[in-house]
């Protein structure tokens, strides 16, 4: 099973780089992924025209199974209303083959801080009650990562969400937000951050990229073998982490 995780498109006249976007779409389509997860900041300002543009862009990614969550930029200017029109649910739980993906909107209108909220813990726990490979997708950071500056990018309820996901035996958490690709392995749960896919908003010396997650349970021993790689706009790929869980 192949999961493509991309984030932070920031569709806008100012920051979206069409040439890099084109090469990223071509490279993703060549992989023929089973699932594509997009963790927010689709737009720069949440404007209607930006949403229309990013919808056209996302439609070029050939995959029947896509899960999207909004980011803080998408909720600016009441942009969450356009998100709901074009992509339906800001919170979702879906299963594809052996995978259950829960997507949660961690943004709040015109506030950069992220939160999930106690009111959502119950249905998230319910959604992860089976034995599938479990993926949780959100925009903000679940744990701090390097180069993020003064730490105010972690969910305000990060401790409780971490404990919840750990208790639910979640295998993979996918985040975006600060445009820094990074992976932590916490209690056998991989917390994977993505860089920006195709915007000029790169931080430090990072470059545009997306994550490729390969998860297999071929040995029928109940364990998943998981490989996380980064794919860059020139098509080069770098293996970052391997884990058995
Ligand atoms: Fe962003
Ligand atoms: Fe963000």
UniProtKB/TrEMBL annotation:
<keyword id="KW-0479">Metal-binding</keyword>
<protein>
    <submittedName>
        <fullName>Metallophosphoesterase</fullName>
    </submittedName>
</protein>
<dbReference type="InterPro" id="IPR004843">
    <property type="entry name" value="Calcineurin-like_PHP"/>
</dbReference>
<comment type="similarity">
    <text>Belongs to the cyclic nucleotide phosphodiesterase class-III family.</text>
</comment>
<keyword id="KW-0378">Hydrolase</keyword>
<dbReference type="InterPro" id="IPR029052">
    <property type="entry name" value="Metallo-depent_PP-like"/>
</dbReference>
<dbReference type="InterPro" id="IPR050884">
    <property type="entry name" value="CNP_phosphodiesterase-III"/>
</dbReference>
<dbReference type="Pfam" id="PF00149">
    <property type="entry name" value="Metallophos"/>
</dbReference>
<feature type="domain" description="Calcineurin-like phosphoesterase">
    <location>
        <begin position="1"/>
        <end position="181"/>
    </location>
</feature>
<keyword id="KW-0408">Iron</keyword>
